[in-house]
Amino acid sequence: MHDISYAPATGALAWTWALIALPALGAAVLLLAGRRADKWGHWLGTATIGAAFALALALFASLAGLDDKSAHLDLFTIISVGDLQIDASLLFDPLSAVFCLLITGVGFLIHVYAIGYMAHDAGRRKFFAYFNLFAAAMLVLVLGGNYFMTFIGWEGVGLASYLLIAFWQLKPSAATAGKKAFLTNRVADVGFLLAMFVMIGALGSVDFATVFNGAESLSTGTSLALGLLLLAAACGKSGQFPFQTWLPDAMEGPTPVSALIHAATMVTAGVYLIARSNVIFSLNADVQTVVVVVGALTLLFGAIVGCAKDDIKRVLAWSTVSQIGYMFLAVGLGGGAFALGIIHLLAHGFFKAGLFLGSGSVMHAMNDQTDIRRFGGLWRVMPWTYATFAAGWLAIIGLFPFSGYFTKDPIIASAFAREGWQGWVVGGAALLGAALTAFYMTRLFVLTFHGPRRWTEDVHPHESPAIMTGPLVLLGLGSLAAGGLMASPVTTWLTPVFGEHHEAHGHLTHMQVTIATTAVVVLGAALGWFLFRGGTEEVPRAASWPVRFARADLGGEVVNRGVFERPSRLVAGATVSMDGRVVDGAVNGLSAAIGGTSRRLLQLQTGFVRSYALSILSGAVIVVAALMVVVVQ
């Protein structure tokens, strides 16, 4: 492996810091201005992220013109202790560049959509402040020039997600969901902290170049521990097994929040961390195997649960869990598959943002109802939403020539290329996931837009205003074309980060994988259409235990309660009891003993001279008697 180094930022690239400063400034102004900004705050918040997107495009163009595709910018020193120095530094390279474009580009469209979606919300100004804060934190995460800076953005995203998921905090479910997301991520983030401690202990630095260049000198055990700790952090942020349960509950926040979290920011952070740390993960085959297993398990987990849900946003949430699983699978396979994971991430950003915003448009038309069993026939009254949602549906199931075909099929082919029986198992899991995706997304699409109308009498569905449908159209176009336009150029663009990409060859040829994938996708979609084209029962009859198990999130919540929540409650209860009975008992007992003794001694103080004289006489008699006894002896 050649030494990794980053060129100093010069010219326009010296303005990389402004990518973060623009949305951060918008958040600060909106929070400090208070109610005075209520009338124009949403426009400022949207303008700052739009300006950041324009700057990202300019910086991208500048980077493309350089031979050395990197620009490293040192701002100031954060920590300087002995030989350890940690700087506030930024890195703009091919990997961070594509993430910046995704965050600001898709984020800008979501901001525009939110202007209409949050139009009647009294807290809209504060909402846009948190939205800007979220984007700024994510930009710090992907632009950080070392692991410490990435961690600052990492925790900033966690804070912003809590504020946005629990934005309607007066609703108990929203407040609970915000706390659940925050606490789950804090548990996983311990892995990131410990990973940095390992880096400092073994290599004396958290700078990317120093860590990557010194990674080969690490022992097998140290590289294994480092990879697993980073993986734990990534699983928490991206909602991968065993931390997947927080992500569907995040749907309690406003729909634009769901779109931003699932498409452009938070859940992509884990994929970014593994991709950025590709040198570390590539050095240890055991770590790569664990990443592959987590990805394969999670993509099936999310797809199975998605088949059983009736809430339009929760189906999409479990879909995100599954699609991020594909990305983890890709980056776990290593080699050229790192780029495949990033390409699927970019395409997913378009079609998942469009699907979530489309679900928000449906909710806007249906008085905030989310049960797809109460929809049906909406294609007639919501043509723009229908068309753009259809684009996202075709993209995510991966039919040719839509974007998912160009990004998911190569991942499945790379999975089958894994050596030995693992290739068959992992490739089979990825192929089964594609079939399940086609089934549950077709079920969602058909029950929402087709079949008989199942609306309640108080609902009068209508198309959303232009400020909401405009972003839907742009995202729909991206859903259709993004994969085909990006696949080869992005792979080449990412070569300085991941190395040359070579097409995988394994148990099945690329053509065989394409035929198999297309076949299972068509079969899954046809089954979903056939079963649900006439609607579904509002209250289904007693389902078989597998369906009930899937509706119960495959027991994920039960496991969390049994393994984590209940033991924690018992420990907390025992601690409180010990504090009350043992610690407080000892303190209160000592206090009572001293108080009781003092009250008894107080009785000796009568205030009568004759009593004191009698006491003195009695003492004198006792002393004289004692002396006489001593003399006689």
Structure write-up:
The protein is mainly alpha-helical. Helix content is 72%, strand content 3%. It is built from 24 helices and two strands. It has a two-stranded antiparallel sheet. β1 (71-81) and β2 (84-92) form a beta hairpin. The longest helix is centred in the last third of the chain and has 47 residues, at 556-602. The protein is globular, with a radius of gyration of 31 Å. The protein starts with 16 loop residues before the first helix and ends with a helix. 52% of the residues are buried. Residues 146-428 form the NADH:quinone oxidoreductase/Mrp antiporter transmembrane domain. GO terms for molecular function: NADH dehydrogenase (ubiquinone) activity; NADH dehydrogenase activity.
Binned strand content: under 5%
Mean pLDDT: 87
* Rg, nearest Å: 31 Å
Strand order of the largest sheet: 1-2
Helix- and strand-based class? mainly alpha
Shape: globular
- Oligomeric status of the shown chains? single chain
Mind sketching the topology for me?
Blueprint (H helix, E strand, L loop, with lengths): L16 H17 L7 H24 L6 E11 L2 E9 L1 H24 L6 H20 L3 H19 L6 H32 L4 H7 L5 H19 L7 H4 L5 H10 L4 H8 L1 H5 L2 H22 L5 H22 L3 H29 L17 H15 L5 H14 L4 H29 L16 H28 L1 H4 L11 H23 L12 H7 L4 H47 L6 H24 L1
